[in-house]
Amino acid sequence: MRIAISTGGGDAPGLNAVIRAAVLSAVNRGWDVLGVKRGYAGLLGEDEVIPLTRESVRGIAHLGGTILRTTNRGDPFHYPARSADGAVTEIDRSGELVARAQALGIDALITIGGDGSLRIAQQLFERGLKVVGVPKTIDNDVSGTITTFGFDTAVNTALEAIDKLHTTAESHDRVLVLEVMGRHAGFIALHSGVAGTADVILIPEIPYDIDKVCEKIRARDRAGRYFSIVVAAEGAFPIGGGESSLGESLPGEERRVGGIAEKLARAIQARTGKECRSLVLGHLQRGGMPTGYDRLLATRFGGAAVRAIAAGCFGQMVALQSPHIVCIPIAEALATPKRVDPGHDVVMTARATGISFGD
Predict the structure, then answer these.
(1) pTM for this prediction
(2) Least buried of 15, 147, 295, 353, by fewest C-beta within 10 Å?
(3) Exactly one of 47, 75, 115, 139 is catalytic; which is it?
(4) Nearest residue to 305 (alpha-carbon basis) of 117, 173, 130
(5) Is 139 in the active site?
(6) Using 50, 70 and 90 to split pLDDT, how confident is the model at 272?
(7) Which CATH architecture has domain 2-149+290-322?
């Protein structure tokens, strides 16, 4: 048996732990393992396909990033190509990819990625490639699994920032607005905000009213608490409005969302007269060593992916359905986007403890 592993989409802490577990699980079965560099670029002749051995993955479980590198602009069904006049178009190179995999003798592919990468995996499966998916996203927005690796590390990164912001906000009687990742799903903002005892949490699933946000801040002033912490997902938006944009995107890239923290800080300061500052965590949330939880979950996913291949469970994604790792159809995971349920107990607990969602 010869398998290949690829990592696609944005990087997340824990990718190397998945790679290590999958390689060791496969090698211990006597299988050969190949690593596809930079998403699918290695199979399209634009990067390398390398052998992965025990030595290749020694000492990488605790490292952030991915030894295979990754990209969020490598969809083989819509691959960017530059014409002679410099114009960028998209072409379908999926047939070329499948043919290359067959030529290399690849019996199955483990693809590690978020909803975009899993959607590509499903399409490749429909074209005849034997695929097993591993869900990866710091946003925790893949359905069918309780959580994804990388999420816990991102939450802890945001939590550390909130803890530090509390001290400077209180010292200066300021409002500090922290922007965290979460284009369509507010899990990072919700979990870090509740754990960090933020005063206001703004997420895409609950559009906010800026006047209600400001009323929460004024209420704290009246109670003698002259500072406030606002945690906002990058995709949060006001009632009747839309998400903030960072301007032009690169070819083949989704519209860049962000800038909400600065807009909120200006609006809050204008309405309350309080001094406001903003902070954007950005890619800090993707970096660094994975937490123990993410390392363990990633390792479990890597081992489970190899077991899925051995059992012939193709077109499937490994998923955490506590306390077990199970396999579910990738198509099922993609059917319904995972979003914060406004009626979830975490949201209800936040409201009960005085946190405002601006609604």
Answers:
(1) 0.93
(2) 353
(3) 139
(4) 130
(5) yes
(6) very high
(7) 3-Layer(aba) Sandwich (3.40)
